[in-house]
Structure formats: structure tokens, C-alpha cells
Design a protein that fits this description.
This protein is mainly alpha-helical. It is built from three helices and no strands. Helix 1 crosses helix 3.
């Protein structure tokens, strides 16, 4: 990932990369020009996302690629596998 962990929380690099494969019809036209650095949102829980971005994008969808989707899902799978094992015990 090129964007930082806190820079993209909605419609950014990670979510858009996953959507390339999972539901490409949900990716809006102009996604590649919709970047919004949302790293500074101290009152997000109080004011909501609309206080920080008109487009509701918080992150860098222009950095998304279909190839990143595989790496993202593998990382999620491996990081959650231990949790699933505990739940199954």
C-alpha cells in the first residue's frame, strides 16, 4: 500500500482495490481524481464524515489497483486466522 494506514478509511486505496474484483460496478467514474487526505479528522465521531469531505472519500482511490486486491485479502486472511482459530476452539 502506498497510502498510510490512517490516510484512507473510506473509498480509499484499500476499499477501491478490493472493489475492482468484488464489485467493479460500485466504483464511481472519476475515482482516480477523488483523492482526499483525511488523516486529520479529530472530531469524526462527533461531526461525521461530511464535516471533512464533500465527496465522502477519505483516502487515495487513485492508488488502487486490481493487483493490490489479492495482497490485501491475503493480509486480512492471515491476520485474522488466529482469531478465527480461537473462536472455533
Amino acid at each position: 500500500m502506498e497510502s498510510g494506514r490512517h490516510a484512507g478509511t473510506h473509498a480509499g486505496e484499500i476499499e477501491t482495490s478490493i472493489l475492482f474484483r468484488a464489485a467493479p460496478e460500485l466504483i464511481r467514474e472519476g475515482y482516480d481524481e477523488a483523492d482526499h487526505d483525511g488523516s486529520q479528522r479529530p472530531f469524526l465521531l462527533v461531526h461525521g464524515m461530511a464535516a471533512y469531505t464533500d465527496s465522502r472519500v477519505v483516502g487515495f482511490p487513485s492508488l488502487a489497483t486490481n493487483e493490490k486486491e489479492k495482497a490485501i485479502l491475503e493480509t486480512l486472511r492471515s491476520s485474522f486466522s488466529a482469531h478465527f482459530e480461537v473462536l472455533c476452539d
